[in-house]
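Posting here for the record, re: iron/sulfur cluster.
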Amino acid sequence: MSKRIALVLCQTSDSDSQRIWTPPLTTPLLAEILQARGWIVSLFDSRLLINPNNTNEQNVSNLANAVLEALPDVVGFSFLSPNAQFSEQVAFAICNQNPKLPIIAGGAHCSSAPYLYTRPYNVIVRGEADDIIVEIADKLIKDGMPNRQLIIQSPVPNLQDSPIVVGANWFPYNDIYEGAEYRTGYVQLGRGCPFSCSFCNSSNGQRTRARPTEVILKEVELLKDKFGVKYIGFIDSIATSVPFFDTTFESISDIFAGNTISLNSTFVRFTELVAQVVADFNGDVTIWFGLETGSERIGRQELKGKWNKQATFKAINLCKKYGIKIGLNCIFGFADENDDDRRQTIELLRELQPDYPNPNILNPIPGTLIYNRYLQTGLLRDPLDLSIWDAKRIRETGEGPINDLDYQKVYDAYEEVENLKNN
Ligand code: SF4
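Prediction output follows.
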């Protein structure tokens, strides 16, 4: 008997002009795992099916109809918090037309806030679904829909059986590179982050695990040779902490020489050996760090073990010594942030002189430590509004996601860092 599953990724478009710059890894990864176990998989991506000129109702209905036309036996949704409401609407539209069709949901939102905007799903998976998705889907086919919603905490996969995943190998991503001047690809070295930043809902407190080196190298080779990709972004939270980073990166360097790489690190895990290995790459490489703040008070409170000013200077000096380009992310808009905190962040950025200073404005994500703290103290403007307050929206409204915060000052600090980009 054939088993069909539709995997739906609900995500915000990369830009107005280009809905998707880079094929994702999330649903293609699950598709590889399911296909290897006999499932026929269809992928759907809201970014390719939504028309900005349509009403929300039309977009919901179009996406639901497209999924149903694939005649799936099971549907799986993956989404981040800003897309949770839209995903829920699409899932309800599917339920209304076919109430017997079981629906699974997973991804970052379900992991951190499984009770928010998740009513239509029969099974909710928290954590990484690699080792459990086939079992869940098979059981839904065999036993039918459960009579109540199940929330399942998945085991942490060791990733040793991680398949080769290249998003562009899958419809609807297989023609994204056609005619594209900039071809970018994602690769994941491993997973897990040992830190617990209060605003983050990815990998909190987990040990880092590596995917098999031969799988990673095959992905790099496919991206370069089959799809002509010239820029690879390693999507790991902290790529340089993944076991065997140095030897894996050396092998990647051999395959991908002459091209461009970006990866994430953290000051406290950045060593001279890592700097040497990265600097040996014969191409353009940028390392991104989460500086987040220059304020010791905010740093100790929100970054905990990641906050270390001495390590910050040491890592930046190593990058400069070895000629590695540096990207620094910072965040403004903590509820108790004052003028002095913002000034310290801007001054530190001026002193460190990164190649790419990148300001962000805090949007508390449901289920994170900071969201829960602000919720309990009544600081969230609307705890059920998960839409993104970006700089443009904040500038236009003078408001943001947190009550009683002077968003004009937050925006001014954001702009000041934006202007550092041009200096
Ligand atoms: S280091 Fe990065 S991935 Fe890890 S908890 Fe902090 S922000 Fe999240």
